[in-house]
Amino acid sequence: MGIKGLTKLLADNAPKAMKEQKFESYFGRKIAIDASMSIYQFLIVVGRSGTEMLTNEAGEVTSHLQGMFSRTIRLLEAGIKPVYVFDGKPPELKSQELAKRYSKRVDATQDLAMALEADNKEDIEKFSKRTVKVTKQHNEDCRRLLRLMGVPVIEAPSEAEAQCAVLCKAGKVYAVASEDMDSLTFGAPKFLRHLMDPSSRKIPVMEFDVAKVLEELNLTMDQFIDLCILSGCDYCDSIRGIGGQTALKLIRQHGSIESILESINKERYQIPEKWPYQEARQLFKEPVALTDEEQLEIKWTAPDEEGLISFLVNENGFNSDRVTKAIEKIKAAKNKSSQGRLESFFKPTATTSVPLKRKESKCVLKHPKSAIKSKMFSLQDCNSSRPNVIGSLSLPIFNLGAKHFIPLSRGVCFST
Amino acid sequence: MLELRLVQGSLLKKVLESIKDLVTDANFDCSATGFSLQAMDSSHVALVALLLRSEGFEHYRCDRSISMGMNLGNMSKMLKCAGNDDIITIKADDGSDTVTFMFESPTQDKISDFEMKLMDIDSEHLGIPEAEYHAIVRMPSAEFARICKDLSGIGDTVVISVTKEGVKFSTRGDIGTANIVCRQNTTVDKPEEATIIEMNEPVSLTFALRYMNSFTKASPLSNTVTISLSSELPVVVEYKIAEMGYIRFYLAPKIEEDEDETKPQV
């Protein structure tokens, strides 16, 4: 799924491009969410124990509805305006990846059967999760639910992440929320992870800024796409023996996959025979997505109370009190989203787009990922040894002036 | 090398008290012009802009423009250790990652040095364009603070509307409603007690009281407060700091949505 090891690669090489943000700080923001990914997560997580899942009277699974309903309300209550984007037809290049996933699922189904026979609870849990598949019906149910809730839905002609990125680039939404790092490769200017995580997990939202990623990695967007293809994406195989770190080194050295191919040792690294990296690149650069103004028109509306009750309570066996309460929450939430944000009035000054490197070392106050603690020590180390006051003599004077003088004159001290 | 000596040390204490609850970390910018700060609250709804001009300091040395990232809570803890009559000197050496606050008692018999670690803060500077405001209200800061406090007992938001009649603050909550009208009043003994309303156009805006209340913590800095309003612009609540500069709070209004009353289609 997504780009292999990109999170870690960025944490190591572009820590400033990722920021931890509070969930609450996204109020008033329009955010495009990759719906298929969310539904998949809901099916795995919500109301599951062993092979049992939440179902309605007819025995149809309702985990996705429960998940979608409660998480969306959580977003709305925080004043966030979500727009869900559904996957369309997968690109042909993805068929290989999809076939792989399919065979994994078949394997898992067999393993599950065995586990059931052996009554091994752990294995049942593990394999039943792997057999999860998002069906057309699941998607259709969620679309219907969202429309009833007054939340806009967009059907992507192809990949949902690509469509999300287009929405974000067009300024229709502030950011894209997904767990799939593909979104960055598709060039979504801002990309959020963990937005849809349950509140109980208390994981802060991780915000990625693509411009900063490029700046920190010192790559162009095209080079970044090449880096992602080399690291391993959904659309084509990667070269054996080349992972994220090596890929970054090679791209920095050679600039593009073509020049890398010319110069690397073909015996050491076996290039796949059929390697459609150019097509993959094309998919990332110009994905199939809706771009018309009209098609991208998104509107949030009032919830359809009767519709929700009949759909959730009557058709899917939800508790009617809980649904009624939830509808009240949706209505109350509308109030909250009316608070404006300062950025809609004042724009960041030009200086911030070309931030002065205050330090040569890459330091972060809070390391974004605890999983890479070993790295932290070295980072902290450089943090303490570096002066925090910007007095380093090596910095050219005019730069300092640019950083601090312009914002002062423009931003703060307009005359009184 | 940076050395700023402020005889009226209490002023810095008051500044910190007024902003530390709104903003947790901020960069103080120091240049030849003065000591300044621009920071947003974590939700990016309110912004504080502070300027203490260099002329207001007894001694002001700033060799080049630098910015110092500070945790305002920690800074406030340190400044609380200064007496109200103390002279405060802010010092930082080139290449150091700390800032020193030196407190001298007026009689010079006690000198305290507090050294605080600096932080590296990534913050955005917003460009605030100069704007013509539709209405500007100047009133006693204590009066404004009282109004905000009173209204927040009843509702969460305040509608501030300026008309020919005066300036009206109103709120609505579960228990009922409240309306407070202040009329122009210049016939007072002391000029700072006056309420002066300049209006080019009537204006009415809605704001979250929580933030307004937070701004009024700057009331000890000035007897008067100036509220500048324009439709669809953040309100500016300004407290002048005598002979030194100002502290300004910007707050984004609440925006009524008009598009949503259509029934969803299924």
TrEMBL record, chain A:
Xref: SUPFAM superfamilies: 5' to 3' exonuclease, C-terminal subdomain (SSF47807), PIN domain-like (SSF88723)
Keywords of the record, alphabetical order, are: DNA damage, DNA repair, DNA replication, Endonuclease, Exonuclease, Hydrolase, Magnesium, Metal-binding, Mitochondrion, Nuclease, Nucleus, Phosphoprotein
Q: Which InterPro entries match?
A: 5-3_exonuclease, 5-3_exonuclease_C_sf, Flap_endonuc, HhH2, PIN-like_dom_sf, XPG-I_dom, XPG/Rad2, XPG_CS
Query: What biological-process terms (Gene Ontology) are attached?
Result: base-excision repair; DNA replication, removal of RNA primer
Q: Domain XPG-I spans what residues?
A: 147-219
Residues annotated as domain 5'-3' exonuclease: 29-299
User: What's a single GO CC term here?
Assistant: nucleolus
The catalytic activity of this protein is classed by the Enzyme Commission as: 3.1.-.-
CDD domains annotated for this entry? H3TH_FEN1-Euk, PIN_FEN1
User: Where is the protein localized?
Assistant: Nucleus, Nucleolus; Nucleus, Nucleoplasm; Mitochondrion
Q: Does the keyword Nuclease apply?
A: yes
CC cofactor note: Binds 2 magnesium ions per subunit. They probably participate in the reaction catalyzed by the enzyme. May bind an additional third magnesium ion after substrate binding.
Iron-sulfur is among the record's keywords? no
Cofactor(s) it depends on? Mg(2+)
Which HAMAP family would you find in this protein's record?
Answer: Fen
The protein's job, in short, is: Structure-specific nuclease with 5'-flap endonuclease and 5'-3' exonuclease activities involved in DNA replication and repair. During DNA replication, cleaves the 5'-overhanging flap structure that is generated by displacement synthesis when DNA polymerase encounters the 5'-end of a downstream Okazaki fragment. It enters the flap from the 5'-end and then tracks to cleave the flap base, leaving a nick for ligation. Also involved in the long patch base excision repair (LP-BER) pathway, by cleaving within the apurinic/apyrimidinic (AP) site-terminated flap.
The record's listing under PANTHER family reads: FLAP ENDONUCLEASE 1 (PTHR11081:SF9), FLAP ENDONUCLEASE FAMILY MEMBER (PTHR11081)
The identity of this protein, by name, is: Flap endonuclease 1
Q: Which organism is it from?
A: Rubus argutus (Southern blackberry)
Automatic annotation (TrEMBL), chain B:
Q: Which GO terms describe its molecular function?
A: DNA binding; DNA polymerase processivity factor activity
Q: Where in the cell is it found?
A: Nucleus
Under InterPro entries, the record lists: DNA_clamp_sf, Pr_cel_nuc_antig, Pr_cel_nuc_antig_C, Pr_cel_nuc_antig_CS, Pr_cel_nuc_antig_N
Entries under CDD domains matching the protein: PCNA
UniProt GO cellular component terms: PCNA complex
Q: Proliferating cell nuclear antigen PCNA N-terminal domain: which residues?
A: 1-125
Q: Proliferating cell nuclear antigen PCNA C-terminal domain spans which residues?
A: 127-254
Q: Which Pfam families does the entry mention? A: PCNA_C, PCNA_N
* Keywords, in A-Z order: DNA replication, DNA-binding, Nucleus
Q: Which Gene3D superfamilies match?
A: 3.70.10.10
Any one of the GO BP annotations = mismatch repair
Sequence intervals crossing the membrane = none
The text of the family note is: Belongs to the PCNA family.
Question: What is the purpose of this protein?
Answer: This protein is an auxiliary protein of DNA polymerase delta and is involved in the control of eukaryotic DNA replication by increasing the polymerase's processivity during elongation of the leading strand.
Which PANTHER family has this protein been placed in? PROLIFERATING CELL NUCLEAR ANTIGEN (PTHR11352)
Name of the protein described by the UniProt record: DNA sliding clamp PCNA
Upper taxonomic lineage: Eukaryota, Viridiplantae, Streptophyta, Embryophyta, Tracheophyta
